[in-house]
Amino acid sequence: MCGIVGIVSNSEVAPILVKSIARMEYRGYDSCGIATLNGAGIEMRKDVGSVEEVALREGLGRAHGRIGIAHTRWATHGGVSRENAHPHLSCDGNFAVVHNGIISNHQTLKTELLNRGHRFLSETDTEVFAHLLEEMYTPGVSVEKVFIRALRRLEGTFAIAMISTYDPKRIFCAREKSPLILGIASETYFTCSDVNAFLPYTRRAMVLEDGEYAVLSPEGYSVRGITDGELRTRQILEIDWNMGAAEKGTHPHYMEKEICEQPEVIYRAMEVPQREIAALARLMLQARRNVLVGIGTTYYVALFGQYILATLAREFVPALSSDEARILGVIDPDTLLVAISQSGETFDTLEAIHHAKAAGAQTAAIVNVPGSTMTREAGLVIHQNSGPEVCVISTKAAMAQMVLLIRLATEIAYLKQGCFTGDIRILKELAYLPKLVEVTLRTQQRHIRDLALRYHNKRNWFFLGRGTYAPIAFESALKMKEVTYLHAEGMTAGFLKHGTLSLIDKDMPSVFFVPPKEEKDLYDLTMNSVEEVRAREGIVIAFNFDQTGAHFDGEVRLPKASPLIAPLLQLLAGQLLAYETAVVLGRNVDRPRSLAKSVTVA
Ligand code: AGP
């Protein structure tokens, strides 16, 4: 789970390489490095730390050359150390490689290479590739041939980029089950794990498929199959993402910026063509069985979908955590699996799609990142168009996905019942949501900051809700855990009395997701749970919409909203509470410890 970049150009590449890996730090940020071909040989600089720290300490941007590769790492094989940071060199220093993925047969290859006298400097699986290239190289054989032969020895997953002194004007890169995209600018070519890396320089992209390799030079690029060597041609994608969206602007953190972008992101989710929503709705109605899958935040989004499909469309569509979908999902050719993913690269969710396809099922996906693996592997794709989400913590992407699921449920209800009065009302309510999000941000963020100041020292939290508010409570607990490192448990409020009530004492805050009063049943039941906590001297914080008459230790009063969109305003409040608490605690908000945004390993 790392980010790789390669750039070949007619001018110095190191400053752009540094910026490009900085834009992919959400993929990993424990160490980084670059290697360039400077005319005399390979110049490599790398160390432990964020791109900013290492760039300053090691002068990454000062490496010379018009061709180079770079890497930002999230350790899998080998601890966090300078030696394990990429790039890795062959013994003779003539080959440098960066890699994302896992070379599963690295042990066998390493033993072989050690026996041939190679010396290894790191504990990584990647380093074998650099030595393999050196081992296979003989003068007179092209570097391209050596690259392909070495690739054919690899098992596992890889997105790999390589430079060599023997062919100093070209970058070689290849892909097998780890994302790799080419960026095409004028006389400058990129190979990167993610379009984010090159968006300030070009919006023209070409996605490599599994089993393909590419060769880039200032004059152009070619793509071929690793096994057959056949030339592959593919359409160039125009990435339609707002440039400014990947810059922090005046916000101290990307997380705050992305939370504040939600009004715009909701508009964009509303602009997704109705025909795309209708196509998915029709597929779902045709299938005998539907399942929604996602993981982490997107599992909770899927769970929200389950509730909303049940309440609006009277359809039972179970939400499964992607990592368990293979076991739990009874998937057959009459099934449609709908995956939800911000990155479109999450291993567990891709595996769920592969499993469904192998069972003969149909697949669909709601995805944010254009050109990502999922957009190519799922049968039907809805692009949510939320723009780049840089913070490791997902906020705006989840909001957009929930809006799309409401639209989907509305469409299914419409198709089932013909034109019913509800659908127009629902869309009108959704159209009003951006305004309410703006009002909430304006009126509640400071107040939520006060709550964070008051309660940031509480080590354990409950997040409790019922009905459609339950997945929002779960997701808010996840936000809290991810960014503050405090323990937070999301639970249905009705579950509380079946054991966990024993944890309530005067040191334990419970955040209640109170529905608007018009949802009388849910409201009454939630307020019963509030009383159960208060009776045991627990701290009660309420996200609510009405005057309740109850005593709360903390209250976030949200603008009046209909039951349909009320959960989404509470989602916003949960995001803000996690964010403000993390800021008070001095956490690394955009890059919390141990996390990476796209988890591309099992
Ligand atoms: C979100 O805040 C987390 N970083 C994580 O749970 C994430 O949602 C999960 O890994 C799924 O990612 P995806 O949406 O890119 O598939």
Protein traits:
602 residues; alpha/beta; six-stranded antiparallel sheet; binds 2-deoxy-2-amino glucitol-6-phosphate
Q: Brief overview, please?
A:
The chain has 602 residues and is of the alpha/beta class.
In which range does the helix fraction lie? 25-40%
Strand order of the largest sheet: 3-2-4-1-10-9-11-14
Number of helices: 17
How many β-strand stretches?
24
Head-to-tail CA distance between termini: 10 Å
Query: Which word captures the global form?
Result: globular
Give the cofactors and ligands: 2-deoxy-2-amino glucitol-6-phosphate
Estimated share of beta-strand residues: 15-25%
Q: What report would you give on this structure?
A:
The chain is of the alpha/beta class. Helices cover 37% and strands 22% of the residues. It is built from 17 helices and 24 strands. The strands form four sheets. Strands 3-2-4-1-10-9-11-14 form an eight-stranded antiparallel β-sheet, covered by helices on one side. Helix 3 crosses helix 4, helix 8 (274-286) packs across helix 13 (396-417) and helix 10 (322-328) runs parallel beside helix 11 (347-358). The longest helix has 35 residues, at 421-455. The chain is globular, with a radius of gyration of 25 Å. It starts with a strand and ends in an 18-residue tail after the last helix.
Write the layout of secondary structure elements.
Blueprint: E1 3-8, H1 14-22, E2 31-37, E3 42-48, H2 51-58, E4 67-73, E5 88-89, E6 95-103, H3 106-115, H4 127-136, H5 143-152, E7 156-164, E8 171-176, E9 181-185, E10 188-192, E11 204-207, E12 212-217, E13 220-225, E14 237-238, H6 254-260, H7 262-271, H8 274-286, E15 289-294, H9 297-313, E16 319-321, H10 322-328, E17 335-341, H11 347-358, E18 362-367, H12 373-377, E19 380-383, H13 396-417, H14 421-455, E20 460-465, H15 469-484, E21 487-492, E22 509-513, H16 520-534, E23 539-544, E24 554-557, H17 566-584
Parallel strand pairs: 15-16, 15-17, 17-18, 18-19, 20-21, 20-22, 22-23, 23-24
Antiparallel strand pairs: 1-4, 1-10, 2-3, 2-4, 5-6, 6-7, 7-8, 8-12, 9-10, 9-11, 11-14, 12-13
Residues 295-298, 341-343, 346, 349, 392-394, 482, 597-599 line the site of 2-deoxy-2-amino glucitol-6-phosphate.
